[in-house]
């Protein structure tokens, strides 16, 4: 295996084309430098320099070898820099799971952008997950952090609440409800309610079902969609109504009108999930700090 120190010596002599000046740069006496270059040539099996009493020049083999030596040393320096960032928690990989109803929120985009700007050497992997499985994937380490609306079961999870997001009614633009300034659950109960499948968006479903029960309104199950976009498409097709986070307004689908609800408690939780044990990485802590410092501007979120 080639000695990196000898490669550095070779690169310095190749840049200076003078053993004396190279020795000064390397803080060496000239004889040891000459011996090290000779030893490297012996290892390689060819001469690197043609030397006379007046000049030093690279041989043809030396010129061909030079770029490879330079790349090796540059990669070593880069590895040292990355190692330092890994030790400091500013580089590495982070897996973030989220439910689809959160992806449209201002918080989601602001946090992702803020984290990428502060930690450009971190490879952030985004994984859309079903609410029911998100907590389990964080607990067993498949995900480092989860953004969810469902409080997971089990003591191995740490849950940070970022407050609640207002729900709005999504109705067909052809519906009489679209002409009203706001609608009530009593009015919505006359229509099929489009939800996520029970195994996928159970966090948002849970909030909606609890809201209907709390206000004593019957819930007429309608078709289901695995994505917020699918749910809104079903509304546009006249297949029912939906209660969605207010951030969904940004979709602006043709044929869909969003209306605020009379019920002031029509909200969905916004939660951050991490493991509660000591396996937190520095990157998880860094991401959590970005979340706490992110201004939630122009949204209905209130930090608790």
Automatic annotation (TrEMBL):
SUPFAM superfamilies: Periplasmic binding protein-like II, Winged helix' DNA-binding domain. Keywords: DNA-binding, Transcription, Transcription regulation. InterPro entries: LysR_HTH_N, LysR_subst-bd, WH-like_DNA-bd_sf, WH_DNA-bd_sf. GO terms for molecular function: DNA binding; DNA-binding transcription factor activity. GO terms for cellular component: protein-DNA complex. Residues 2-59 form the HTH lysR-type domain. It comes from the Bacteria. It holds the Pfam family LysR_substrate. Belongs to the LysR transcriptional regulatory family. This is LysR family transcriptional regulator. It comes from Pseudomonas nabeulensis.
């Amino acid at each position: 295996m080639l000695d990196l120190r000898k490669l550095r010596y070779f690169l310095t002599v190749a840049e200076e084309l003078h053993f004396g000046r190279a020795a000064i740069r390397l803080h060496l006496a000239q004889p040891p430098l000459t011996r090290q270059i000779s030893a490297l040539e012996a290892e390689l099996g060819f001469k690197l320099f043609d030397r006379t009493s007046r000049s030093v020049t690279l041989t043809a083999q030396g010129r061909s070898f030079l770029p490879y030596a330079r790349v090796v040393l540059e990669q070593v320096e880069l590895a040292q820099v990355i190692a330092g960032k890994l030790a400091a928690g500013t580089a590495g990989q982070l897996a973030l799971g989220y439910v689809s109803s959160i992806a449209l929120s201002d918080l989601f985009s602001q946090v992702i952008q803020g984290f990428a700007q502060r930690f450009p050497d971190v490879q952030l992997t985004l994984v859309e997950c079903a609410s029911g499985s998100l907590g389990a994937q964080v607990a067993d380490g498949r995900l480092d952090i989860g953004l969810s609306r469902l409080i997971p079961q089990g003591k191995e999870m740490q849950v940070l609440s970022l407050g609640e997001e207002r729900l709005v009614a999504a109705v067909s633009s052809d519906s009489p409800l679209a002409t009203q300034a706001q609608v009530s659950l009593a009015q919505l109960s006359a229509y099929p309610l489009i939800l996520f499948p029970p195994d996928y968006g159970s966090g948002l479903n849970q909030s909606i079902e609890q809201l209907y029960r709390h206000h004593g309104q019957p819930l007429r199950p309608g078709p289901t969609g695995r994505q917020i976009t699918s749910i809104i498409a079903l509304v546009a097709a006249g297949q029912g109504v939906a209660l969605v986070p207010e951030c969904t307004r940004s979709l602006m689908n043709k044929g869909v009108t969003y209306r605020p609800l009379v019920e002031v408690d029509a909200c969905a939780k916004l939660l951050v999930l991490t493991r509660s044990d000591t396996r937190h990485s520095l990157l998880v802590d860094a991401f959590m700090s970005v979340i706490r410092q992110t201004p939630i501007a122009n949204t209905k979120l209130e930090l608790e």
